[in-house]
Amino acid sequence: MTFQQQVVKTFAPMLFVSVLGAQGAQAADRELLEILLQNNVITQEQFDRLVDKESLTTADILAPAPESVVVVREEELEVDVSLDENIQMAIDEAVASAVSDESPIKASYGSKGFQLATRDGNFATNLQWRAQFRYSNPFGSDPRQVKNFNADSTSSFEQRRLRMKIGGHGFQPWIKYYFEVDLQPARDVDADAISSGARVIDWRVDLAKWDWGGIRMGQWKVDFNRERVDSSGRQQFVERSIVNRIFTVDRQVGVQLRGRLFEGSGADLNYYAGVFNGEGRSVKNSSDEHLYVGRLQWNFLGRQLKTRQTDVEFTELPTGSFAVAGLTNEGPCTRWSSSGCGNLDGFAKPVAAQDDQFKIEQGLQEFAFKYRGFSVQQEWHRKFITDRVEGTESDLTGAYFQAGYFFHNWIDTIPAPLEFAARYAYVKEPNKADRMLYNEREEFTLGANWFFNGHRNKLTFDFSHLTLDDTLLMQKESENRVRLQWDVSF
Fold this sequence. Notes:
Layout: H1 3-23, H2 25-38, H3 44-50, H4 58-62, H5 74-102, E1 105-110, E2 113-118, E3 124-137, H6 146-150, E4 156-170, E5 172-182, E6 199-210, E7 213-221, H7 226-229, H8 243-247, E8 251-261, E9 269-276, E10 291-298, E11 319-331, E12 335-337, E13 340-342, E14 358-371, E15 374-387, E16 392-405, E17 418-430, E18 438-451, E19 457-470, E20 475-489
Helix pairs in contact: 1-2
């Protein structure tokens, strides 16, 4: 109905009565009824019924027509229906907004998964699921002995990691917490199913009110070297280098002082100093000795580099770090992993070793840099193991260098989500049968990543050439390996 028709319909009865008063029914009624009919205020049937009446009242004009003869223009019906729908939609949106505004909890989804948070900002919980599906041939792990190179080939699919991550803050934004559950790690056919079951691998609380200093307590991957602290879901290759198994400190239970000084300046510095049990994940200390770890990281361009590999974020400003770290420990362990305290080849297993049998002193030098799709990182390790029972000393050395680049930045025909990478790694370690002799291993790996949604959804392929020089057997072995992995977080 037009605006003019609406006005006529509204004021017609009053106009009608007014005209009647001035001219009389016989002179005015037909003329006014024709006006009402033309403006669709009354129907033809109402006009025929009213035109012969001797006098009309307002009630006559307002009397509705029989339902069967009501005439509604199609275009008017469409306008009214559309108007009703818009009104209903606006009402629904207003109600939803009011309910949301009144609710004490906000729900959202972001880089850390699903989040529930209070409106005052004092409490928040993030929930994320992650999985890795991997294929490898002719073996999945890194071969360390001649027999591993000569073993039968395998072609294997595995669920490498199936994990649930929960983190956030409570009471204040600077009281942070995090824990991670590995639901079902892959295992060999002869491995203990119980020890390979679901397990809590991380749990920690951070008191981080000030950037210059905070305290972390709980269990986590000790801040020693970048390659290990980098999440397995944010790697440049399917898996970490051959250096990792020998030199990682992995997860420990303890407390740490950490912070950042001189932020944004040429002296920008991160520091970490911690005391831990030294016996790996979820284990109480068996003696009064502890693992002591320290790390200094110089952010030489005044910007902090996050612990994640590749430059899929396309860092706009050049960002890099140079770090040194050291540790000392006395106990039954000669290596650590996500499974806890373990032993290097040729050394006594923890269950058979004395509580303070091995003294370990270890040092690290590290470099990392990212800029506009290019990334590079490098580590050099040195590890000294003193066996107090056998009276021997062992000196282990390891290093790796890796780099990656999104060549789309240089050649337009190369797809933007595709990254190519290369890595070289070297390890010198005691021979398993005679610790006075040393074996040397090398890794040459080429890799490619296709990022569907950054590290949260990516496909990784790598090809490795692995070599071993066994000084006791005076034998050299080599083998190629291919791996393909889909890594996805929800």
